[in-house]
Amino acid sequence: MHDECTPLQTMSTIQDIKATDIAARGEQNVIETATVSPTNGEESHYTNQSQNKMFPDNAENEDDKQIEHMTVENINSNREEMHDIIQTREREIQEISESQSEEITTSSTTCDISSEYVNSPLPSDSESLKQKHNIMEKEYLDVLSDDTVTQVSCYITAPSYVLQHLECRIIKNMSSLIVSDNEELVSNVITVECSDMEKRIPFPICIAIPFTERYRGNYRDIMVKVSDVDLQSSYLTPNSLEGMRESYKVTCAEVKVYKLGIFSLVSCLKKESFTVTKKGLTLKPSMDSQISLNYPPGVFSSPVLVQIKVQPIDPSLVAYLKTQQDTSYSVLSTSPLIHVQHPSIHLFQKPITVFLPCSPHPDKKNLGSEIDHKRTGSATTNRIIPLYLNWTKSTSIRKPGNNACESLKLLGFRSRDSGWFVLDGVVVRTVQSGLISFELCEHFERFIVLHPSSIMDNSHLVSFVKSLEEAMLSITVCIVLYHQKDNPHRIVILVVPSEDLHQVLRNLRLEASSGPPEPSRRFQVKEGEQLLLRFTGNIFASSNGKDYGKDYKLIFHLQRKPRLELQIKEVDEFGNYSCPHYKGTIVVYKVPKEKIVHNLDQSLILNENNYQLPICKLPLKLLYGRPAQLSHVCLAEALWDNLLYWLADELSEENALCLFSSLPLRHSTIQLIKLKNPDDLTEQTHELLCFWKRSLPNSTDKLRLLARHLRKIGRSDLAEELKFKWENKVFTEPQQWSDVVDAEIMERK
């Protein structure tokens, strides 16, 4: 193989990628473009040009986006030399075919898809036909640690003799270190290795990785992230995101790769590339039609590649930061945060004009218009926003026109200049309502426009933007712990975004799970951060039913639904003798990312210095008694929870208010629960009823007392129906509670 590297004018880094298993029937010049993420989190771009000899079967019909240009060399002049090489290669292939009589022991599904990936330019070559029919697709399965459920890790398409030596496994613990800023993991993290280090792989091979995406929107895209053992990463655009596997549709990101390593799928800010020529260009990204960058003729002396990303800012996030910083109170709104990449060697010969949306008066009705409305669980909307915000301080409405607006401030970011600073010399003008413009005479990596209602010090503006960037990477969550109603020794623990809490609780009820304890207090967490769960008191846990007493961790990924299922039991069966149940506590710590150890098998080595003060605690209870008595108690608790939820759903808003007034509940308790569930009357009523029930002594006849309050507000019909359901153990959704009821019937027999 002969490698020849040629520098390109608009690329910053040049690097060679060599393809193995060289075919001898032709040479191709391949230019592969990918995006590289260095260790500092910033992205750069490189162009790899390598002269690779490879199979025509794999090179023909090549449609991979990694390959920009492809030139087939004239091979007619070297026929004699190639004939000797072909004969040698035929003997090698025949030896390989004879050595592969054993079966593939890994659980897999194989199919012949050679017609899609190969063409034979030399029909007389019998070995080429043999190689063509050996192209297979294999399904690789893996089992996560402490789990019994087998998952599909990936599908790989390659020659059959290569598939026998490829190993694929899921490395769940590495996900914390894989994701970077503004990225969200949507798949398992997998590693693909070759068991035979001397085996030469005929790259490219095709890898399809299944994923589950909850939301994407206009501003985000799905990319395949390829990392090495040192976590140096490149990004590849998938050829497709859907495919057929065994006659059923599977959501998979399919990509052709030229090397093995660590693979994952991430949802990241969409990046668009434009080439600005000497004639100039009006750059309009597809993410937002209001954004444009006008490059006049002569701004560059030669063609330049420009890349742009748009990061929308939710007005609710601005409101949240205003409550946290007194110096930021004057900020009314912001423009989107714009990320732009230019080659550093190309200076602006002329200023460029930028047009950005920036609403002068944030309106709750337009909350979703400035962000992608499909991302209902985005980090910027999961905030605890105070109810009372003073929106009265604002500037007067300006008429459309080229009027300079002194209150609009442009801030730019350059890493070589130590970050953010205010551009006092740039005049930001209001073009029309909600649209502004300004001119840039130099390149900035990021820029944003702030709209304060009064004059602010430059240091306060810079502080606000830094806090804004940090807040965009965080999300408000809480931890939910539920017991299985038919087996209280089984618990499920989830990390839930605040906005998704009510839906998650509904789903847990459908799974025949029950609470309390109540969800934990809300706290901030970033994508990929780890939460350490330590069991204390008289209860400890196990993931496999054998090894008790361990600490467990949950890695938060917004689109991956972090979930942990454990089995609990008492440490000392004679402990807590003065209570009707065993008592324990789950102490939750947040592990800083810099404390996570880089290890393919275990990415977290625990010691006392790895975590700080606990961020929350969850009380844990386990009832005393023989299994029969325990089952009876669980059935009663399950029935109570079910009937209270049914009752909450039956009450109208007027009935609910009357019932709240009738029950002995504090006004502050009612207001707090209303604030927790502002848009869901059923959830409000259900939580208040559960709170009222827990506040009563165990000896109280709760059914008779609740029926009395229902008759008091004029709903005797509900009182009678509630009594009938309780006495006959009628669940409102019998199909979801059949297992519990059957267990109770069998117990009585």
Feature tags:
749 residues, Immunoglobulin-like, 10-stranded mixed beta sheet, alpha+beta, Chondroitinase Ac, Chain A, domain 3
Number of domains: 4
Task: Provide the β-strand percentage band.
Answer: 25-35%
CATH architecture of the largest domain: Sandwich
Secondary-structure-based class equals alpha+beta
On the 0 to 100 scale, the average pLDDT is 74
Q: Radius of gyration, Cα only, in angstroms? A: 31 Å
Which fold name corresponds to the CATH topology of the largest domain? Chondroitinase Ac, Chain A, domain 3
Low-confidence stretches: 1-86, 93-130, 363-405, 603-607, 626-630, 734-749
By DSSP (H or I, 4+ residues per run), the number of helices equals 16
Number of E-state strands:
40
Distance between the termini: 79 Å
Q: Helicity level, as a percent range?
A: 10-25%
Indicate the overall shape: globular
In CATH's first tier, which class of the largest domain applies? Mainly Beta
Largest sheet: 10 strands, mixed
Biased composition (Low complexity): 96-110
Biased composition (Polar residues): 37-53, 111-126
Protein name: Death domain containing 1
Region (Disordered): 37-59, 96-126
